[in-house]
Amino acid sequence: MKRVIFSAAVAFASFTSMSALADGFVCAVDDEALNIKVYNHTQPEEGTRNAAVMVLSNQDVGFGRKTIATFASEGTLRNAGTSYFANVDLRFTGSSRAGELIAGTKLGQLKSIRFHVDYNYSYPLEDGDVTNATLVLVKRNGEKINLAAVCDRYLNN
After folding, report:
1. For residues 97 and 110, is the Cβ–Cβ distance under 8 A?
2. What's 112's DSSP letter?
3. What is the pTM of this model?
């Protein structure tokens, strides 16, 4: 009987401490050198379909300065399915570089960034499969800039 209880306890501990594999999207904006990467949490207690981080980068900038801004679920990023919403808050380190350019607009002029990936978890894509997305830059004056993007599904198997 002790062996059965011990085996069940070990199996339960192994199951509850497991983490999910990393997943998200690696995207590029058409006609821009702008890249967007979004990754979900890997810990089940945080929700493996909840956004963990969004990174915007510019491939035309020199090595070591490519990252424009990062947004994290601990303050500036949230999601609903595969629609991601980032608050541009200059008080957070990841989005504090107000002079960085995103599609010809300075980061400090933006209020928020909306990123909608054409994907539904009910219809899975394999790692590397391609889908479309839309990036919407919302300026502090209310103006919106819509940009088309192409995304590769990222699954760390």
Report:
1. no
2. E
3. 0.82
Cα–Cα dist 53/78, whole Å: 9
* Burial status of residue 28 (CB atoms within 10 A of its CB: 0-12, 13-18, 19 or more): middle
H or E, element range at 87:
strand 83-87
Helices (H) and strands (E) in the chain, counts: 1, 11
| pLDDT, position 76 | 95
Host H or E run for residue 11: helix 2-16
What fold is seen in the domain 20-155?
Lipocalin (2.40.128)
What number of other Cβ atoms are within 10 A of residue 146's Cβ? 10
Query: Three-state SS for 15?
Result: helix
Q: Which residue in this structure is represented by tokens 């599609």?
A: 103
Domain ranges in the chain are 20-155
pLDDT of residue 18: 55
DSSP 45: G
Are 131 and 125 in contact, with CB atoms under 8 Å apart?
yes
- CA 58/CA 56 separation, integer angstroms: 7
Of 27, 36, 40, residue with least CA distance to 80: 40
pLDDT at position 19 is: 58
Q: Is the per-residue pLDDT at 107 higher than 90?
A: yes
